[in-house]
Amino acid sequence: MKKWQDNKGWLFILPVFLIVAFSAIVPLMTVVNYSIQDIFGPGQRVFVGTEWFKEVLTDQRLHEALWRQLLFSGLVLLIEMPLGIGIALLMPAKKGFAASVCLVTLALPLLIPWNVIGTIWIIFTRPDIGLMGATINALGLTFDHTASGLHAWITLMLMEVWHWTPLVALLAYAGLQSIPPAYYQAAKIDGASSWSIFRYIQLPKMRGVLTIALLLRFMDSFLIYAEPFVLTGGGPGNTTTFLSIYLVKIAVGQFDLGPAGAFSLIYFLIVLLFCYLFYQALLNVGGGEES
Amino acid sequence: MKKRYITLTIYLVVIMLPIYWMLNMSLRTNADIMARLVFFPTDITFSNYMKIFTDPSWYNGYINSIIYVVMNTVICLVTALPAAYAFSRYSFIGDKHVFFWLLTNRMSPAAVFLLPFFQLYSTFGLIDTHIAVAMAHCLFNIPLTVWILEGFISGVPIEIDEMAFIDGYKFPRFFFFVFVPLIRSGIGVAAFFCFMFSWVELLFARTLTTTAAKPIAATMTRTVSASGLDWGLLAAAGILTIVPGALVIYFVRNYLAKGFALGRV
What is the pTM assigned to this prediction? Predict the structure, then answer.
């Protein structure tokens, strides 16, 4: 796309730049500060170099939390993306009452504060007062997410899929809506099967919105905190202790600023790396598909 | 065709089940909840809701949440609009780098920034104010807003701008009276996302407030641990947190699909 060559653009982005710099760069420098010093109290600090980084990088529990986190994000994407696309394909294409009902219902879980999501599912899965818990018990199975790690994971995945699949569906639906009717008419004349319509018309047209969905879902599932915290507090044992939960445990729970700072930086770098890879992919998609 | 709608209906019902269950519990007394499991409550009571609407420690939570969410949405839109315009229309030194840097902030873990934010806002004496939470939420909402709006703006051909300038429009007049109306559905979508992510965020909101600006989500967490477990009250409060969002989604429902379709990304 044609653009004007002009450094005046900086004037326009100055407010955004200042606000985000204030909330991002200053705190990040504080974290760097923590990570290379041992802080006993106000004014009492010793420079320790990379000691905290060594400690954190060899921390077994951190490795476990990282693998757990990757597994979780991977599963979330594997389930939510196809399911979301499927739901979007089922939704009525024409605007009207039915489409409105679908849109509003789909968006509801997205608008619930994250800790309330946890609360809803605690209630819902309780064997004594929850619908799901009671139903499963009535079937003769025992289900308790506070005692079994596997059950905690199942509950979390259910919760996550329930919570976020609608976002994928909404974005995919928006992508589908952008396809001109002429495309379908042409496909009909050619006698295309519904699979080839999906594969050669709908999927390519949804590529942009699906990339957004993928990015958003990856980021938010990788940073998940409130839901598992409310549901199980990272337990039972450490089975649902994800990176954020472990970090907050160290930083706020034990108040170990040094390791917490080093951990934060490493966490941040991991996220940054993934982000860069996705961003490159995004640019390639944009460049290759521009019509 | 028939099968398709049945599947869809089943999915929508499954989505509604946990929410319906909470609604169900919010309409019953705690004793009734513990005593039996009923799908359709018979003795409906609004006492849980009455408690929330009459107890200041409850309803202030809602007011606080709404205040900082609105502040955040306004700040994000006002600053992100010109920025998105610049990213879409101009090429200038470091534009790609700044754009990427902005996006990284959408992806930075909130937990990383928790302690530094507390220190930072303490230094400025802003702890327990609405503006502190609104500013903190800018960290992830501004990048998202810029990103969404940039897509919409790039959907408007640059020739429209050039034509307007040839016609003798001064920039501010062009921007506010010609350009902003052109991308209003984009602004609607961006506002929806700002509202949504600020409304549901808890970690910052809880850390940066103590009493005067305490959000409803934090009030609920406290109730869970403090006053034993009053399930009915908790459920009623949860239902009420969905209401503002449901209203917003109702107003932008038509933009939502059309809006994204216009966006380039």
Answer: 0.83
CB neighbour list of residue B231: distance below 8 Å, 6 or more residues apart: A123, A129, B25, B30, B33, B34
What residues of chain B score a pLDDT lower than 50?
226, 262-265
Interface test with B, best of A119, A173, A220 (most B CBs within 10 A): A119
Contact residues, chain B, for A270 at CB < 8 Å: none
Q: Which helix (H) or strand (E) holds B208?
A: none
pLDDT in tens, A39-75: 666 666 777 777 778 877 888 888 888 899 999 999 9
Tell me the residue ranges of DSSP E strands in chain A.
4-5, 37-41, 44-47
- Taking all residues of chain A, what is their mean pLDDT, rounded to a whole number? 82
Residues of B in contact with A19 (CB under 8 A): 75, 79, 135, 138, 142
Nearest Cα residue in chain A from B6: A90
Instruction: State whether A95 and B234 contact (CB < 8 Å).
Output: no
Candidates B26, B92, B98: best to mutate against A (most CBs of A within 10 A) is: B92
Q: What confidence tier does A289 reach under pLDDT thresholds 50, 70, 90?
A: very low
Phi then psi dihedrals of residue B29, to 5 deg: -80, 160
